[in-house]
Amino acid sequence: MTAPFAGKHVVITGGVGGLGAAVVGRFVQAGATCHLPVIGAPAAAAPAGTQQTGPVDLTDETAVERYYASLPPIVASIHLAGGFQAKPIEATTRADLETQLGLNLVTAFLCCREAIKALRRSGGGRIVNVAARVVEVPPAGMAAYAAAKAAVAGLTRALAEEVKGDGILVNAVLPSIIDTPANRAAMPNANHERWPKPAELARTIHWLASPENTLTSGALVPVYGRA
Q1: Residue whose C-alpha is closest to residue 6's, from 25, 24, 31
Q2: CATH classification of the domain holding 108
Q3: What is the pLDDT of residue 152?
């Protein structure tokens, strides 16, 4: 792999999860210094090519403002942080809905807003959000989650239009169930071979965030293939 991010700084939220590790690894391999806001204490020894800061509550407006203001100039901000819940509608409370909106929409909104400020200062860049396949193929029993991810998709498209004159491209990927150890443990009888692999998703996210992407913005990219 070439090093299109050599000497560049990239923010990756949710960078210590199952998908996050693959995405961070991809960007480090491409030469980036990856800045990882973590919800708890930073790891005692952060992996090479990464800088962890924590705790950072990505649902807290002031915390997100301070975090982005503390960074060196960035070229991309990638928002993997989120949450999942499956419940039938009759069992879904307002608190459940608000939790899903907080974990998925509010985190993406605040990070996008602060990333746009930072990218405008540095002359442009890329933002990649993570929505979900449920935006296009909503299943039963996930109303709160589907609503939150649909909002992330709408946010992505709205921002792409708003910043198109600033040299900032904003896109989202739509994964299905990702093949992580946690998901395999939760669904041991599923056909795991059909799930998208973290490394496969990382390749798409990397391209959307890279200088090679010169035109694509406002796209909701399906990354579920075999699923």
Answers
A1: 31
A2: 3.40.50.720
A3: 98
On whether residue 4 sits in a domain, the answer given is no
Indicate the number of domains in the chain: 1
Pairing verdict, β 9-13 and 76-79: parallel
CB-CB neighbours of 60 under 10 Å: 15
Hey, how many other C-beta atoms are within 10 angstroms of the C-beta on 164? 13
**Average pLDDT of span 5-10:** 96
Residue 120 structure tokens: 């405008």
Helix, strand or coil for residue 142? strand
2 part of a folded domain: no
Comparing C-alpha atoms, which of 208, 200, 71 is closest to residue 126?
Answer: 208
- What residues form DSSP beta bridges with 50? 34
Give domain status of residue 137, yes or no: yes
161-167: long-range pairs with CB below 8 Å, 24+ = 161/218, 163/116, 163/120, 164/217, 166/116, 166/119, 166/120, 166/124, 167/119, 167/123, 167/124, 167/125
Q: Does the pLDDT value for residue 27 go beyond 90?
A: yes
